[in-house]
Write the structure tokens for this entry.
Amino acid sequence: MADNETDTLKQGQELKDWDYLISSNKVFTLKFFSFDTSISPYLGVFYNPRRSKISGGYDDRLYNKNPKTIRCAGCCAGCDDIYDLKDRAVWVANRNNPITDMYGKLMIDVHGKLSILSSGVSVVDLVSPTPVARNASGTLLDNGNFILQELYPDGSVKRVLWQSFDYPTDTLLPGMKLGINLKTGHRWSLTSWRSHELPADGSLGSQ
């Protein structure tokens, strides 16, 4: 992407290892990340307490009432580590499907399919809309929700294709849901990380 200071990934664009999206008031970023390795195997949403602005009801103080370092809440047996909250992903797109090389990217193809790819091969398809979407874009909102929408030519929203809030990982953000949609059967639930450096599904869950 030519301009990193944007909240939107447009159809045909690619978000690569060194790129990121940042929400309009700089509350959250969407980026690839790693744990001290040359490969960035995961795509996640991070909170940015020092870069956010008070606007639209999203006050930095709402997300940063406690000290920025907190103890592990029991994601793994015998763990009493301290970690920095601002460096912790609040959502991970491919927690169980890490990228295995240095060529990971997020893209929206010509049909509106949102995918994470590695060396041109799909690692995970987040959504493949039916019918296809010819004018799709993904936007990171100030509440931390990454949302894929199909737009009319004038830029207004035609339909919501997918949103990260429907697939929480281990963190419940304001606006997320837990439970079951009685109409569709879709479940919203939380599952712990396997360890501090492994976002894959852990043993603790909530719904």
